[in-house]
Each structure stands twice: as structure tokens, then as C-alpha cells.
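Task card 7
Instruction: Convert sequence to C-alpha cells.
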Amino acid sequence: MVKRKQVEQQPKLKLYYFNIKGKGEPIRLFCKYAGLALDDYRFASRDEFNDLKKKLAFGQVPLLDVDDGTHQLVQSSAILRYLSKLANMYPDDPIVAAKVDAALDQETDAFTGATVATYSARFGIPLDDKGKARCYDILSTEVLPRHLGDIEALLTLSPTGWVAGTPEPTAADFVWYCRFAQYLPDNSKHFAPHLSSLENYPACQGLVDQMSKLEAVQEFYAPKEGGGK
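Output:
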């Protein structure tokens, strides 16, 4: 696959997020692939986030600051859609664009249960350890297999290996890649082994393999001088 050129005319972009992968990683990877210069700011402490939280539209990060505070965008899917349009990577065909949007929104649906189980108090559903364990069991045996099966079916039918059948990866592919390659393995203690390994989902594993071969992704994860990324 041909490496994309750096976007020459773009606004100044600064991402505010924690020093973890989470919801920030698809944005970081997308910008790297799309050729968008991104100032990847990671909070030094929780207190730093709490100070910023009071000024945020919905009290959450990721936050994408555009042109030194001229605009502040929140919600990771909205940020990725904006960046896609900025990099001319949002499909012109409204049907294809809707398929990308559907796959992007489906990622949120698929992992809502896991998010609630992890941050139950935030959602007004306080769970003790026994309750959380029960949630993760249902997620492993019923919920996630269904959702991953749906994405597996889309990828199996895709002529390109990307979730919407596009010639190159879209924002939706980056969010699913991060879930498959990072979130599930990193949280393997909560989920059945076949979910973390993707052993029953060869097309999903194929997306991981295809994404991992992208030059931009390899460069992003290559060791840097002095350590870190």
C-alpha cells in the first residue's frame, strides 16, 4: 500500500488524553497514517485532567484542540470523523460513508457493556466485585461473541479486508484494530480466551495483521531514541 503524503495545509491539532492507549490511540494512529501533524499531549497527573475537565463540553477526553483553542472537539468518533474529512479520507459516496459511520458507531455499541462494568458508578449502576464478574461473564459468553461475529461477517465479505470495503483503512478500521489488538488482550483477565486471541474470528485477525503491516503503524510503534513513543 502506498504511504500517504503529509497533509500540507492543516490547522494546528493538539490531542489531550491520558498516557494510555484507550480512546486516544485510534486518533493518534489515524493521524500518523493520514499524514496529519498532531501534538500528542498526555496528562502528567490526574489533577491536571481534573483542572481541564471543568472546561470541557462534556467533561471527558479525548479532547482535540484546533488552532490554539479556536475550536475544541470532544467525543472520539466525532474527532475521527473530523480528521477523516480534514485528510480527505471520508468517503465521497454517501452510502460508503454511512457504512463507515455504522462500523464506527458499532464499536461503541459493542463495548458499552464493558465500559459500564469498568466504570459502573459513572453510569449510575454501582456494581460490587460479584456483580462485575457476572457482567464480564455475560459479555464473554453472549454479548461480545455476537458483536464480533457481526464484524467478522462484514470483514469476510469485504474485498479489501477493511470493514467498509474501502481501498484503504478508514477511522472505523482504526478503532476496531485498537479493540482487537490492544483492548481485548490487555483485558484478557475479564474475557474468554477465544475473544482475546481472536481464534474464532479469522477475518478480524486479518484486519489486525493488515493494519500491523502499514508503514505508518510500524513507524508509530517503532522504538524511539530515549525510549517512549
